[in-house]
Design a protein that fits this description.
Helix content is 41%, strand content 20%. Helix 12 packs across helix 14. It is an alpha/beta fold and 396 residues long. Bound molecules: adenosine-5'-diphosphate.
Length: 396
Amino acid sequence: MDSILVINAGSSSVKFQLFEIAQNRELTLLMKGQVGGIGTQARLSVHSRDNTVLADQAFSRHEVPDVSAALNRAGAWLRDRHNVHPVAVGHRVVHGGPDHDRPVVVDRSVVAELERYIPLAPLHQPHNLAPIRSLLDNQPHIVQVACFDSAFHRGHGPLADHYAIPEHFYAEGVRRYGFHGISYEYIAERLNRMAPEVAQGRVIVAHLGSGASMCALLNGRSIETTMGFSVLDGLPMGTRPGQLDPGVLLYLMLQKKLEPAAVEELLYHESGLKGLSGITNDMQELEASRDTRASFAIDYFVYRAALHAGMLTAALGGLDAFVFTAGIGENSPTVRAGIAERLGWLGISLDRAQNDARAQLISSPQSRVAVYVIPTDEELMIARHTVQLLAANTRA
Ligand code: ADP
């Protein structure tokens, strides 16, 4: 059996999914797992497709001090317990820089190039690259593919791609890259299969998870998005503020004398739903809370999401369809209803029962804009790209 391993590595966890490749290149999920708590209390947990627990194993800090060790543990478990030898590995890499508009097969020279983008995404890129390097060292025969969160937005025109700061910064790489592109590409493909005539129109996809952004799709291609240079801009998120007047940062650093590291901590880990509510970054917990600060944080999230949808509608010159996806988008009828209500002026109206039931199509028959809930699957998208590039690599 040929299989593909998909790896999504962060600072404290390595998540992975294993897919079987059929003769016709169809992919079937076999298992998903992660090594969490890297560097503290590491734990390997793996589930089958039907959620049966396949592994739940704790390690000491000494046994799994870093991402590379976590990958070795997971790899050893896959080999020894399940005789798994993947023919290729696909990686999620946050930043592909200004030029990568599609996935690539990685070798040492590509890794060296991707390391140049570490300053652009210091909290993600090094962790994304660590397992690639580790596999190049230990299993150099395995084909590895990098899929970039920024790639899907690379067709943006110069108006969408620039900040209004001196041009030399643009040349240096200070651009509006946009992220969550693997998710948007998956949704664009799904929508095209579900409703091809809708997918050819003007569509907003709202990826609302712990990280959140929106993308304007015109004929299936990204033309604008709410995130920019980093994953901080746009919508408020679990712990990130979203759009923020840069004057606030100047105030914090110059008047309040906050060190850059403290500002970074504030922006990445202490803001958003967590900062606003003072309770939690988790939407489900906020919805369960009776605290007024929790309902304020939800209202704020809904309000800002609707404002950004208005902006993207202007970029598209109108709107034919709206898609909700990711943890909050797929699972919170309340947030969906709140955003839809604020977009009533665009001709959006939801079918309440369909929204509550999380149907695929949740707009009412009178709605001028079709509204969908489509679960995203970034790992499947990465696996598909990996199979395609593996085939191309084998032919070459
Ligand atoms: P990520 O993959 O970026 O970590 P997810 O896409 O899993 O994030 O989204 C996580 C968010 O989805 C959390 O805020 C979580 O509370 C929210 N969420 C998950 N299930 C529900 C639910 N049933 N109702 C409301 N929010 C939910």
